[in-house]
Amino acid sequence: MLKSLLSLLFLALPFWGLWAQDAPQDFIITISYDTLYGKVVGGFTPGKSSVMVKFKEAETGETKVYKAKDIKSWHAAGAPYYFESKVYHPKGRHKLDMGYAVFMRRLNPGKVKVKLYEYYNTEGSIGYTQTYLERKGEMEEVVFRRFRKQLAAYLADQPEIVAKIQQKEYKKRDLERLIADYNQAAK
User: How far apart, in whole angstroms, are the C-alpha atoms of residue 40 and residue 64?
Assistant: First the structure.
């Protein structure tokens, strides 16, 4: 039995390299929109992934730390989401403050009218998640205590979606589905 397993493994080894080449890879999109393939290295803690990514490029083998101002986005192979570089404007700061670059996790990939993001904010001693909507390059934070009122106003160009919001068919936990339904209706 052991001899049969070893024989099978020995026969499969030449094909392992072919399979590994076709396996999905992590990648980053540079400021100039070039795609670099390789491996995201290090932990995926929310705090770290919101400000930097450590990436080992497949072609050169070089490992480099990228901050959000250095690249457009990064994606770990197999993950249903990716991280995009966005400008964050902290509340309470002067309106003319330029903000700073952070990575926000994009929850609805593809070309859509309204994009949905989560940002793990590490200001102060505790971390917390903020949710943002983006339309035409303008970011707006979702204020969950005003969920229905805010989303009804934000999505006002789709009356059937607004009616469902007002009839409480969408709860806060349904935000991803709500935005997906809106984007489908807005096509």
Answer: 10
